[in-house]
Design a protein that fits this description.
10 helices, alpha+beta, globular, three-stranded antiparallel beta sheet, single chain, six-stranded antiparallel beta sheet, 47% helix
């Protein structure tokens, strides 16, 4: 719902606070939260007190640091429960993981970022994988690059303009040095029908991804994560064929179910 009316400042601050805490892997003190958000300390103190009481924020035992609370998890889970793509996507992730032997992921483009909606880990758990709900800069990931490759140059430029690197986003992305490098990466993804990245999200990990074509341009994609030593061009091509096949099957299922 578009509107030129000013946004409600208290609501903005609440969402900003929750986003900052949700992005942090450790509890943050009042001073750090103030530094990151710019929310005045008096307002911040009352906002945190209220959200702790409502279980949206947790505090440490000494009450000096804060982290995301259980009600935030419940609300986030309801998003997954209501999304008609997640359950069939999980079935394909399980089949794909069994077929190729690597961890598989399902994610969605969200502005300049991608959000992981589901993952299927390998039984060996050879490496740390992105958590469901994790948000990463699209240009850093194979998932995001596959999705950006379906956008026009103007659309990609607009997305890049809105990009603000997060703490979880590594610095060695194509846009960190020269945006033209990203356009070359996207052109390669268009030519191959899949996108790749090497060690830009997790050390010693390569990824390959393709889009789920039930929308044009695609909003969702599936990827596999491989140990870097196994990420040879031949192996990436083999895995990409399996990913593309599952993406096509998932897209047909969603279309038949009327998901658009």
């Amino acid at each position: 719902m578009a509107s030129d009316r000013p946004l409600v400042k208290s609501a903005q601050r609440t969402v900003q606070l929750l986003e900052v805490l949700g992005a942090s892997m450790t509890p943050l003190g009042m001073g750090e939260i103030h530094r990151v958000t710019g929310i005045p300390r008096s307002s911040l103190h009352e906002l945190i007190r209220t959200l702790v009481a409502m279980h949206w924020i947790d505090s440490t035992h000494d009450g000096l640091a804060f982290s995301i609370g259980p009600n935030a998890l419940l609300t986030g889970t309801s998003y997954l429960d209501a999304d008609p793509t997640v359950t069939p996507a999980i079935r394909h992730l399980e089949a794909l993981q069994a077929e190729v032997g690597y961890t598989s992921h399902f994610a969605r483009l969200d502005g300049a970022h991608i959000i992981y909606l589901a993952s299927k880990e390998t039984p060996q758990k050879r490496h740390v994988t992105p958590r469901v709900g994790r948000r990463l800069l699209a240009v850093s990931t194979a998932l995001g690059r596959a999705l950006l490759a379906e956008r026009t140059p103007a659309e990609v430029e607009a997305i890049l303009a809105a990009s603000v690197p997060a703490k979880s986003s590594p610095p060695n992305t194509p846009t960190s040095t020269d945006p033209s490098l990203l356009y070359a990466v996207l052109e390669e993804a268009r030519a191959h029908g899949y996108a790749t990245e090497r060690e830009q999200v997790s050390p010693n990990i390569a990824c390959v991804a393709a889009t789920v074509p039930y929308r044009i341009p695609a909003t969702d994609a599936i990827s596999c994560s491989l140990p870097i030593e196994q990420g040879t061009p031949e192996e990436l091509a083999r895995v990409s064929r399996a990913i593309i096949a599952h993406c096509a099957e998932l897209a047909e299922e969603l279309k038949r179910a009327g998901v658009r």
